[in-house]
Amino acid sequence: xxxxxxxxxxxxxxxxxxxxxxxxxxxxxxxxxxxxxxxxxxxxxxxxxxxxxxxxxxxxxxxxxxxxxxxxxxxxxxxxxxxxxxxxxxxxxxxxxxxxxxxxxxxxxxxxxxxxxxxxxxxxxxxxxxxxxxxxxxxxxxxxxxxxxxxxxxxxxxxxxxxxxxxxxxxxxxxxxxxxxxxxxxxxxxxxxxxxxxxxxxxxxxxxxxxxxxxxxxxxxxxxxxxxxxxxxxxxxxxxxxxxxxxxxxxxxxxxxxxxxxxxxxxxxxxxxxxxxxxxxxxxxxxxxxxxxxxxxxxxxxxxxxxxxxxxxxxxxx
Length: 318
Ligand code: ACO
What we know:
Elements: E1 3-12, E2 17-19, H1 20-24, H2 31-38, E3 42-44, H3 52-67, E4 76-80, H4 91-99, E5 106-109, H5 115-128, E6 135-142, H6 152-155, E7 160-170, E8 175-182, E9 190-192, E10 206-208, H7 210-231, E11 241-244, H8 249-259, H9 270-273, H10 280-290, E12 299-306, E13 310-317
Parallel strand pairs: 4-5, 4-6, 11-12
Antiparallel strand pairs: 1-7, 2-3, 6-7, 8-13, 9-10, 12-13
The structure holds acetyl coenzyme *A (ACO).
The site of acetyl coenzyme *A has 24 residues, from helix 2, helix 6, helix 7 and strand 12.
């Protein structure tokens, strides 16, 4: 039986850093409010002209290096993003052109913060059925482009970045399971107010009922982690690391409590990265792999929740 395993991880952040103190000068907020309500201290934002695929290319090349592969080895690209460079071709195809792996399938999924989880789940299936052997899975965003920088309720949250993993076949399970969910009834609680078909004006920016999103996120993520463990017949004590979506430290803490996991076993990057949507989980994963916390053989629970609502989990033996 073929399994899929993570052969390498990579990430990239734009150079420009925006601190909470910078934001104090832009909107009526304070470092203290942002830190206590969200855990965020600083975030990276793309420079003028720097695009989602620019960030993704760096992350992808790092993941390929870590896997000991060349860009031309890639035979499948699944790309999660809400902030594509173009309406079409999709970001997967634009990345494929940069990497030079011509003729292989390349696509993007737009499931907001759960974009990487959806992309990972699809790529895992292709590797396991034998149709892909070197699958590049990317989550990358330039959310700063759809952030209303005059709205303090959202401007302090969102940021830019990219993360990637390479999946390849293995004889032992790497990705043990993925579970995806969506509930479009919640669409009005978190959405971007413009698009091609409805028109871009007057505001192509993120609208969020933060408090209500918070409550649903805690509930759904709690159910998602139970579901992942139950599907694998595992107790929460089997987990080595929780690698959660980095939206808010309080949501992360609530999920860790549900799993009875001490915060030392939870990868937290929200203070440095803010909410980078589809990039958040692969970015956090790469940070913890590269600093040596996550080691080969560790059992990881990845989860994300975002606009739609969409959410999902992956249980992974790294
Ligand atoms: N600075 C200072 N005060 C602020 C700010 C700010 N940046 N933003 C809001 N406030 C004020 C509000 O106006 C409100 O004031 P009032 O009491 O006088 O009316 C007060 O702070 C409390 O506001 P709440 O919205 O109730 O604050 P809350 O504790 O819920 O924190 C937050 C807000 C951080 C947005 C939180 O609700 C949250 O993180 N929600 C979830 C976000 C999330 O997970 N999103 C999902 C993924 S995103 C995606 O898919 C793209």
